[in-house]
Design goal:
This protein has two domains: 221 residues, no CATH class; 434 residues, no CATH class. The protein is built from 29 helices and five strands. Strands 1, 2, 3, 4 and 5 form a five-stranded mixed sheet that branches.
């Protein structure tokens, strides 16, 4: 599966993961109790229990076999995984003489590139006499000798597994299949869920339960095992639950005070102590959903931000479906992902450049006219501190959620994927809060999508080098600084791209071996992602110069700009189609796409915003400026932070392989989007909004400002977050 949104690329397969820092998870930060798995192993007890089960507990033996190993269904469409029955297995708890037989779920990898000639044509299963009331049972086979697969299916499977290996690793995978390049089935490894007594190892238990001597000659590897209540509690979880507990207590007290003061006592709301209602869910909800029009506000940005966020979420939904390690039809996925009808998903990563562009635009637009160059220099520490503090509360909250609650809310046979993200946050939470994870540990990021925040902060740290000239009030100096900076960034990035010869996507089918280098050295690199931000600075300055003025363009000129921008945006989106083809091989085109695709998209978005502001947007402006997008726009930062970790939780829960289907993925998007809205609303009301009030109070100072100015500042803060 050679997917699309590969800026999420490296969290599902441990062998390919080799970042700048190799992540080592200490036992005291591991999700699972590793000592528990070792302590339950007992060879003598295993022999005794299996002997007893075979001689006296036919129904218990059937339950182990029923919850365990069998040949995957749908091999002709590329399915090589069978998850067994995870919850049925872990519920097994049968007292017998001198002990209790409990179920243990294990995942084993059976490579298909091995010698199967030692297996008989018919597998040996235990001779089981069923009770009279039981129906006849045809036992499942585990016999690769009976597998017949078309050559084109094998080729597609190899292409799929090679293309998605790096992407899967970035998204939480923990183990890659061992492959031999010259084997026609080298890309294939059966991943089979097994159910065994907890005192046994998989090999010993399977050999005995299946009464098979052939298993001794089959090469297979134990991936991981799971037991009931095997998630250990660590210090980070106690910290997280304590902080969330304090926040909830403050919300309850503050909300009660707010309701009593304003609703029951009906006192003058202007006289209430703002700090006492900072955590009021009632007051913060009203602030979130109430909007007062403010002169100079760029209304269409709400719609731009809302649509861009929806594109991010739907892209991530499809990516998680198509690159899942438990997808049941990878051959079909590969066919879809390389087709023209998938271009709206494969082009999805470009939407992040929308946010970089808006960040640069609002930085200039909200700063110019309020600060001079000297004031900026004198208050530079506040400029940085305000940005960092406004980003911090929600980011820290999601990190704490990943460390604790997201690991506790669910479980499943492939929970190792979700656990990988918890491990990353427990080890590298600090680099995320310092916004250096894209350079320090790019392949082990706590929150795989947080590279965007790191680059955004780094660009804001560098922005005063340009702003100090823009705020001089002299247009010639400002234009020289803005255009010169954009040219310098484009020249440096283009030179770098042509020297490094990157592919034009995080993973493309024809160059899967370059995925890791692309992610580390291009996709999360500040230099190569900076051009949309600098385009945004220019459009922000254009909007500032024309603030409150009427810009006159004749119909031919405005039509020409719209047609040109639509052609550019269409080419940017369509460019994802040819590079996804298996035969794509054009390094010059790759380097050109990497260098100029993102600033071109930023110019399209910039023109759209300019046209909407000055009356040339038509129905586009009506749609983007609709009030329906206000709440989503204000929630967009929290939605960006929380939607992806929630997806990993959801995608680690299935108890059977996922069959990829576009319609199913669309419905899954609706679920992902709705859940992201709900959780981001809670984060905003309980944490982000209260912290915003506290930050304003302790950093603001000075005389009180009119309500309209406060409203404008609230809008500016929300818009510049994402």
């Amino acid at each position: 599966m050679n997917s699309i949104y590969k800026f999420i690329l490296i969290s599902i397969c441990g062998n390919i993961v080799s970042g700048h820092f190799d992540m080592v998870v200490p036992d005291n930060k591991n999700v699972f109790d590793l000592n528990l798995y070792e302590s339950v192993l007992d060879e003598e007890l295993c022999e005794e229990q299996i002997r007893y089960i075979q001689q006296n507990e036919t129904e218990l033996l059937i339950e182990f076999l029923d919850a365990g190993i069998r040949t995957p269904r749908g091999i002709m469409t590329g399915n090589v995984i069978d998850l067994g029955n995870y919850f049925q297995c872990l519920r097994i708890n049968k007292p017998i003489t001198n002990s209790v037989v409990e179920g243990k779920y294990c995942m084993v990898h059976v490579p298909l590139n091995q010698d199967w000639s030692t297996l008989p044509s018919t597998p040996t299963w235990p001779d089981i006499t069923l009770p009279d009331e039981w129906p006849d049972i045809t036992w499942p086979e585990l016999n690769p000798n009976r597998i017949s697969m078309k050559k084109d299916v094998v080729k597609r499977l190899r292409d799929y597994h090679l293309a998605t290996a790096g992407y899967a690793a970035f998204n939480g995978a923990v183990n890659n299949d061992k492959r031999i390049a010259d084997s026609p089935l080298a890309a294939l490894t059966f991943r089979l869920g097994t159910c065994i007594p907890k005192s046994c190892t998989p090999r010993r238990a399977l050999k005995a339960l299946l009464n098979s001597t052939e298993l001794a000659t089959i090469e297979f590897e134990e991936d991981y095992c799971r037991l009931p209540n095997d998630k250990r509690w660590v210090a980070g979880e106690y910290v997280a639950f304590s902080i969330f507990g304090i926040c909830i207590l403050l919300v309850v007290i503050s909300t009660a005070y707010d309701i009593r003061y304003n609703i029951f006592q009906k006192k003058d709301p202007k006289k209430i102590n703002k700090l006492l209602i900072a955590f009021s869910a009632y007051n913060n909800t009203i602030r979130l959903v109430t909007y007062t029009p403010v002169p100079g506000a760029i209304e269409c940005l709400d719609g731009v931000r809302a649509f861009a966020m929806m594109w991010v979420i739907i892209g991530h939904t499809f990516v998680n479906q198509t690159s899942s390690q438990i997808v049941a039809n990878p051959a079909d996925v590969l066919a879809w992902i390389t087709s023209l009808e998938s271009v709206w998903i494969t082009a999805g990563p470009i939407t992040v450049d929308t946010f970089f562009m808006l960040s640069g635009l609002l930085l200039v637009y909200t700063t110019a006219g309020k600060l001079t160059s000297m004031k900026l220099v004198k208050s530079l520490h506040l400029f940085y501190l305000n940005r960092l503090l406004r980003m911090f509360p929600a980011l820290a909250a999601v990190i704490l959620l990943q460390i604790s609650i997201f690991n506790r809310v669910a479980d499943g046979p492939y929970w190792e994927v979700a656990a990988a993200h918890t491990h990353r946050c427990r080890v590298y939470w600090w680099s995320t809060l310092l916004y250096i994870q894209n350079y320090l540990n790019p392949l082990h990021m706590c929150l795989a999508h947080s590279w965007y925040l790191a680059i955004d902060i780094q660009l804001h740290i560098l922005s005063p080098l340009i702003l100090v000239w823009v705020l001089t009030g002299k247009r010639r100096i400002a234009w020289s600084a803005l255009v010169g900076a954009l040219i310098a960034v484009l020249a440096a990035a283009t030179t770098y791209n042509f020297i490094k010869k990157f592919p034009s996507g995080p993973i493309i089918p024809s160059r899967p071996q370059d995925a890791q280098e692309y992610i580390v050295n291009y996709y999360v690199n500040t230099l190569t992602r900076a051009s949309p931000f600098f385009v945004g600075l220019i459009f922000g300055y254009i909007l500032h110069l024309n603030r409150g003025k009427k810009v006159t363009l004749n119909i031919w000129m405005s039509s020409l700009f719209w047609i040109g921008s639509l052609i550019i945006s269409s080419l940017v989106v369509y460019s994802s189609y040819p590079i996804m083809q298996l035969e794509w091989d054009n390094q010059f085109a790759d380097s050109m796409i990497n260098s100029f695709m993102r600033p071109a998209w930023a110019m399209f978005v910039g023109w759209m915003v300019f046209a909407c502001v000055h009356g040339y947007g038509g129905p586009v402006n009506w749609i983007l400026s609709h009030r329906a997008w206000k709440v989503l726009s204000r929630l967009s930062y929290a939605m960006y932070l929380v939607h992806y970790p929630l997806m990993f939780v959801i995608n680690a829960m299935p108890i059977v392989p996922i069959y990829f289907d576009v319609r199913y993925s669309l419905f899954q998007f609706l679920a992902d989007f709705s859940l992201a809205v709900i959780v981001s609303f809670l984060i905003t009301i309980f944490i982000d909004a209260p912290c915003s009030v506290l930050i304003k109070h302790f950093m603001g100072g000075g005389p009180k400002r009119p309500p309209k100015i406060l409203e404008q500042e609230f809008e500016d803060e929300k818009k510049t977050q994402l």
